[in-house]
Hints:
Layout (H helix, E strand, L loop, with lengths): L2 E10 L10 E6 L4 E6 L9 E4 L4 H4 L10 E8 L6 E8 L4 E8 L12 E2 L14 H5 L13 H19 L10 H4 L5 H4 L4 H9 L9 H12 L6 H5 L5 H16 L1
Parallel strand pairs: 1-7, 6-8
Antiparallel strand pairs: 1-4, 2-3, 2-5, 5-6
Helix pairs in contact: 3-6
Amino acid sequence: MPSGTLQVYTALAENAAPLPGVTVLVLNEAGTQIARLTTNDVGSAPELVLTAPDEAYSLDEANTTVRPYAVYQLRAEMTGFQTIELEGVQVFAGQQTVARLQFLPAARTLPEVEPETIPEHPLFAGDGGSGPGNATSIGVEICVNAGGDFEAAKANAAALVRLLMEEHGIHIDHVVQHNHWNGKDCPKTIRATAGAWEAFLALCGGQGSQDTDPELEAAVDALAAAGIIDSPERWMALDYTANTVRLLLLKMGRYVTQ
């Protein structure tokens, strides 16, 4: 049976620091639990294989009747943090779906959890099943809650773009707007602000980021080589707050006592 995979990452909303120990429940469209995952020290859950419709449905531009992806739900819980519910998670055959969940501290009186729903949509780039946008590019969505920190959201997106550029050998000239593929006014806020796209590309290229700090880069590489941390690119992209330092001290303490 055709299948795709789901990769869940959990982090603190305030600074994108990895959040380990989160319980992630995966449910099918009917609401039946099919898996229970726990994130590790870098906020990553084990990759999960999930059934999905045959990929031929995605590639058939004439297909207007069969949904080309399977739909799942996520419920993520961690003591001391607000529960996250995500509906409409789409999994395509032969593809990896990535869910990055950002947690806010729990309020003294917790409101009823309201799930976030990912709406049904055609393929990401909007240029058809065999169009170059969907066939040859990687879509990155910049998401920020109402009243949230849009600058932090852009910095997080740029950090992800830098990582993808390094992993796949993508040149900065090939980082384009959604508008490039189908003319949609997206990313709308960035497009509406003079110089904002150029500033975002500068972030993607490492300008104004911690990647330009050679001393920090050497320290992160040394910690990774010693086995104290993994995913050095993610550590380089973090804002170093009290939560990040706490996580690093815990890792160093475990390393020393092993």
